[in-house]
Amino acid sequence: MAYTASFRCVAGCPGSWPVTTVIYHCPTCDGLLEVKHDIAALKDRGAPAWMKLFEQRYKTTQWPYGSGVWGKKEWVMPDLREENIVSMDEGGSNLFWAERYGKGLGLDELWIKLCGNSHTGSFKDLGMTVLVSVVRQMIRDGQPIRAIACASTGDTSAALAAYCAAAGIRAVVLLPKGKISTAQLVQPLANGALVCALDTDFDGCMQIVQKLAKEPGIYLANSLNSLRLEGQKTVGLEIVQQFDWQVPDWIVIPGGNLGNISALGAGFDLMLELGLITKRPRIVLAQAQSANPLYLAYKKGYDTFEPITATETEASAIRIGNPVSVHRAIKTLKAYDGIVEQASEQELAEASASADRSGAYTCPHTGVALAALEKCVKRGEIHAGQKVVVISTASGLKFTDFKVRYHEGRISGANSQSRNAPIELPNDFEAVKKVVLGDLDVSAR
């Protein structure tokens, strides 16, 4: 049986559109769209057969199925012809057992899903491989697309630029000037994207790129385009597969534009519908206190959502005050008995440093998620005996400046309790011995 997918209105308005249609909103209600799969067709295989297929493909050398995304092609983008796939072996990232850090919190099973172990260093690769591949097919089938454009706080632009460079498609990137790390800025530059640094924040960039996408030949790559979410939903599928098809009790995920949480829910929903799992995890959505519009809405029972002007935060990639996927995120949180928590600069910096001292190397956005986890543990909502997964969205190597400033005691709003600065010494054995043995004596106490 042929597998198919199409765009449908999230709110349930009538109508469906091929995934190769240039459309971002429902023509009836102007709401967002989602990709819906033909579930009846997917049920031609039972759950054991799907599990076996996915296991056979996992990290295989058979292109493109070794990719964590394309190994589940039938569940992601079944209408895509294989010759149009643009893949960089995304997915298949490590599920890191944060044993020492977890035990310090009283948790026996704390895991960090290292989505930053990817080609461009973030989970955005999972969605961009799908979007750019579909656009490549659209272009080859005669659609007049000249460029793919995005607004970004860093990671989206890096992924878009890399995948477009591989596909030979022009990438256009709008960034907030001076509000992303140097490592994030240089990635799209190196990959040949047209980079515009705007004197505004991400929300301002987002407004402009949506207008730009109305121009002929410009295709929009931000997460309001649900093609991206189809790739990102494989994070949930992969976590369950790595646990031998068992569902963790909790998943903690940082949120900015909030497409990632609805993608996470979509993956679990599909596994439930096709019988691979029998329960949902609970979800904690973590926001920086400086960019916390969903947290504020959650505290009011979601009665109202009001955009805010996000202020300075080390978690720059989630410095978003008016997330486009907020309503999809709220729908997911309600279905997954979710919690929304926030983290101050002090809390995110210290949580990141604590995890690092147990072997991780976390980005500040993962620090937000870890700080939210610590708060939930302290309140007794998450406790020993439960299996917890924290989604790490990017590599800490993208945020070296954040690490350096922490250990130099220069993080605004944080006092660097775990600061670890180098000790400068003369070229003298006795001086070195005194420091090393003295440190070991102190550590042994």
- Give the neighbour order of strands across the main sheet: 4-5-13-10-11-12
How many helices does DSSP assign? 17
Based on secondary structure, the structural category is alpha/beta
Which fold name corresponds to the CATH topology of the domain at 95-121 and 229-407?
A: Rossmann fold
User: H/E series, N to C?
Assistant: EEEHHHEHEHEHEHEHEHHEHEHHEHHEHH
- Taking Cα atoms only, what radius of gyration do you get, to the nearest Å? 22 Å
Unreliable spans: none
How many strands, which pairing sense, and closed or not: the largest β-sheet?
6 strands, mixed
Descriptive notes:
The protein is of the alpha/beta class. The protein has a domain at 95-121 and 229-407: 3-Layer(aba) Sandwich (Rossmann fold), CATH 3.40.50.1100. 39% of the residues lie in helices and 15% in strands. It is built from 17 helices and 13 strands. It has helices spanning 39-42, 47-57, 73-76, 99-105, 124-140, 155-167, 182-190, 202-212, 227-232, 234-242, 259-273, 293-299, 326-335, 345-356, 364-379, 400-407, 429-444, and strands at 5-9, 16-18, 33-37, 95-97, 109-114, 147-151, 170-176, 194-198, 218-220, 250-254, 282-288, 339-343, 387-392. The strands form 3 sheets. A 6-stranded mixed beta sheet has the order 4-5-13-10-11-12, sandwiched between helices. Strand 10, helix 11 (259-273) and strand 11 (282-288) form a beta-alpha-beta unit.
